[in-house]
């Protein structure tokens, strides 16, 4: 027998004897220690790698927004205001917004037959307002779905008023009057 084989057998015997001496509580502790180690390497390592990727993205974006000399300058009040007004679509985008509203009504099983439409321009207010009052008939779920879909698909829309009316308590169909305002930027 070689000395390497004998040494391995001896170490195996020492390990077996140590495990038997630990009993079940010691074995449970070793198992929990092994699980904790696996979690550290299995969970925290990918999270650290993701953190490094995000830090790299921050450095790249900071470099893109840096002004002369590599320093970022705080936005000016005029720049913030211009960014605010740039959010709002211009008047030529109105037909697209109305089509999205029509699609929202159709998707919720409602028809928009008639309504009141009014364009309001105020010299003191930089945005034009397109106000519309739409009468619809349907269930509460349909009307609410319509309103939610309009507000989701047309970010420049605001719900001004919603009036619900039902002739009888047991009647599932209600009459609703919904008033939206679409805010439009400069042309």
Tell me the number of helical segments per DSSP (H or I, 4 or more residues long).
4
Q: What would you call the shape?
A: elongated
CATH superfamily of the largest domain: Ribosomal protein S6/Translation elongation factor EF1B
SSE string, helix = H, strand = E? HHHEEHEE
Q: What's the number of domains?
A: 2
Roughly what percent helix? 40-55%
* Alpha-carbon distance between the two ends: 94 Å
SSE arrangement:
Elements: H1 3-65, H2 77-87, H3 94-107, E1 116-120, E2 128-138, H4 140-153, E3 157-165, E4 174-184
Antiparallel strand pairs: 1-2, 2-4, 3-4
How is this structure best summarized?
By secondary structure, this protein is an alpha+beta fold.
Describe the overall structure.
The protein has 187 residues and is of the alpha+beta class. It folds into two domains: 1-73, no CATH class; 88-184, Ribosomal protein S6/Translation elongation factor EF1B (Alpha-Beta Plaits). Helix content is 55%, strand content 19%. It has four helices and four strands; from the N terminus they run αααββαββ. It has helices at 3-65, 77-87, 94-107, 140-153, and strands at residues 116-120, 128-138, 157-165, 174-184. Strands 1-2-4-3 form a four-stranded antiparallel beta sheet, covered by helices on one side. β3 and β4 form a beta hairpin. α3 packs antiparallel against α4 (140-153). The longest helix is centred in the N-terminal third of the chain and has 63 residues, at 3-65. The relative contact order is 0.10. The model has no long low-confidence stretch (mean pLDDT 84).
């Amino acid at each position: 027998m070689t000395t390497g084989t004998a040494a391995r057998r001896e170490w195996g015997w020492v390990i077996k004897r140590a495990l038997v001496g630990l009993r079940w509580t010691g074995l449970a502790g070793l198992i929990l220690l092994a699980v904790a180690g696996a979690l550290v390497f299995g969970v925290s390592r990918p999270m650290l790698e993701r953190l490094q990727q995000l830090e790299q993205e921050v450095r790249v974006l900071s470099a893109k927004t840096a002004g002369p000399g590599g320093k970022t300058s705080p936005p000016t009040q005029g720049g913030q205001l211009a960014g605010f007004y740039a959010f709002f679509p211009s008047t030529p985008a109105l037909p697209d917004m109305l089509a999205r509203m029509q699609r929202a009504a159709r998707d919720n099983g409602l028809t928009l037959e008639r309504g009141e439409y009014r364009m309001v321009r105020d010299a003191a207010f930089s945005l034009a307002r397109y106000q519309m009052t739409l009468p619809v008939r349907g269930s509460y779920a349909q009307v609410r779905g319509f309103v939610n879909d309009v507000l989701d698909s047309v970010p420049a829309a605001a719900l001004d008023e919603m009036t619900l009316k039902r002739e009888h308590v047991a009647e599932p169909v209600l009459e609703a009057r919904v008033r939206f305002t679409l805010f439009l930027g400069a042309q």
